[in-house]
Write a structure and sequence with these properties.
15 helices; 2 strands
Length: 494
């Protein structure tokens, strides 16, 4: 038997160190979700103490503190789920890193909520229930508390399974369920509910059609042209001008409520002016950026990168201005009712309530947002800057059209519908071009059904999961809210 060489003990130590290294990596992987959970819990605790300090109404302060904690929980879930729709396409197209997207979204969402968020919010979320049907202010408080808890729980569950759902629809379902439990089916405004149900179909369909139309335009006018760079110099400034005009109109309508109320026609005039100025400003930028680029599709992605990042930032600002108020609406209603002892159809949103919404969204995005950002950006269909740009444009245009038609639409459904639209258009366009090529060159190659399914550019499993989540959001949140309301009312109103 040979004596062990001097290196043998070192080999043993190396193996032990390797095992320790693997163990450390495993521990870090397992503990990563716990860090996010710890940050979320710490934020909710801080909000509870802050609410106790800001609100002093005797024995009723405990209710406001509890509502503030649940409001913080709701805001965290908005950040984890809703914001992904704005940043997902830019990340999926590699125009932004995950870290860059999170920073931009956190800043723009908070700025939108605090600078341009509405001062007044409907306590009953778009007139879903009649507050005069509620028998007492205490019952109303429990109904709003149930709506807050149930909508937050539902969005949390949707994020966990990887489905981007509408926060607004979750709140609507929560308010409806609590209203039915508190005052019966006659308390619900079924006409408003019918409009919201119609938006389940209209929002994603319209978003998908607009996104597909812009992609078709880009393909025909730029990508399929013989001289792609020359075509890009002609048309990309036009597309950037359309983006600027659309967002100027969108933000005029939705994002400037605190400063001035702008109707649709003046907003369109503002948008047209901004579009003209942007066209002449962006033309020299595109000409300079395109110098020396090769005549291929990869070069075109460079020209769409910065406009895509700007559009994602603007979408986040508009989302913060428009949707945060809806999310903290039940909390604002509880604070008002507890303070004044009356049920109001519309209430002022206290600054500290908006701060909870703004900061909660940021923390939720940072800790839990990457999962849904990856889902929207890369797991539904493959995006590049041109396709992602079409999604961003469709989101803003569809909201403006819906506002003009008076339809209550969901920004979540529009953005994800835009991603679906881009993917399904690419499938159709690929099949059309393949068929034309086969007819021209006489190629009659038969592709097996299994291979055709594998070549689908939109993942059907994700498509079905998301659509199913959209369909059941309102009824699921409503059922959960009714159960929570009956439990709260039974415990505290005996």
């Amino acid at each position: 038997m040979e004596n062990p060489t001097p290196q043998d003990p070192w080999k043993t130590i190396d193996k032990d160190l390797q095992r320790i290294s693997v163990l450390e990596q495993g521990t870090m992987y397992v503990s990563r979700p716990l860090v996010g959970m710890g940050v979320a819990l710490a934020f909710m605790v801080i909000v509870g103490f802050a609410a106790a300090a800001f609100f002093d109404a005797g024995h009723g302060s405990a209710i406001v503190v509890a509502a503030a904690v649940f409001g913080a929980y709701m805001a965290l879930n908005i950040g984890a789920n809703d914001v992904a729709n704005n940043m997902g396409p830019a990340v999926g197209a590699n125009a932004l890193t995950m870290g860059g997207a999170i920073v931009i979204a956190a800043i723009c969402e908070s700025a939108g909520a605090l600078l341009a968020g509405g001062d007044v919010v409907s306590t009953i979320s778009k007139g879903i229930i009649d507050p005069s049907m509620i028998e007492s202010s205490q019952v109303f408080i429990w109904a709003m508390m149930a709506a807050l808890v149930s909508s937050a729980l539902w969005v949390n569950l949707a994020t966990w399974i990887g489905a981007p759902v509408s926060t607004t629809h979750s709140v609507v379902g929560g308010v409806m369920g609590a209203g039915i439990a508190a005052a019966g089916f006659t308390a619900v405004n079924w006409e408003s509910m019918g409009m919201i149900a119609a938006s389940w179909v209209i929002s994603p369909a319209l978003g998908g059609i607009v996104a597909a139309a812009f992609l078709a335009f880009i393909k025909s006018r730029i990508i399929y042209q013989e001289d792609k760079i020359s075509a890009a110099r002609r048309w990309v400034p036009v597309l950037i001008a359309i983006m600027a005009g659309v967002f100027a109109t969108y933000l005029s309508i939705k994002g400037l409520k605190k400063i001035v109320s702008v109707d649709l026609v003046p907003a369109l005039i503002i948008g047209l002016g901004v579009a003209v100025v942007t066209y002449f400003a962006s033309k020299p930028y595109i000409n300079k950026k395109s110098q020396g680029l090769e005549n291929r599709n990869k070069s075109l992605k460079i020209l769409f990168g910065l406009p895509l990042v700007i559009s994602a930032a603007l979408l986040s600002f508009a989302h913060g201005a428009n949707d945060v108020a809806n999310a903290v609406g039940p909390l604002a209603a509880i604070v008002h009712t507890q303070e004044f002892g009356e049920i109001a159809g519309k209430v002022q949103i206290p600054l500290w309530v908006m701060i909870i919404g703004a900061f909660g969204i940021s923390f939720g995005l940072i800790t839990f947002g990457p999962k849904l950002i990856k889902m929207v950006g890369s797991q539904i269909t493959k995006l590049n800057p041109m396709r992602a740009y079409c999604v961003a444009l469709s989101a803003a245009i569809t909201v403006i059209v819906a506002s003009w038609l008076g339809l209550p639409v969901s920004s979540t459904h529009i953005a994800v519908g835009g991603v679906f639209g881009v993917g399904f258009y690419r499938e159709w366009d690929h099949a059309r071009r393949t068929r034309k090529y086969a007819e021209k060159h006489g190629s009659g190659k038969i592709v097996a059904p299994e291979e055709r399914r594998r070549r689908k550019l939109v993942r059907r499993s994700h498509f079905m999961t998301i659509v199913a989540a959209w369909i059941i959001t309102v009824p699921a949140a409503a059922l959960l809210s009714a159960v929570v309301f009956l439990a709260l009312n039974g415990l505290f109103n005996v």
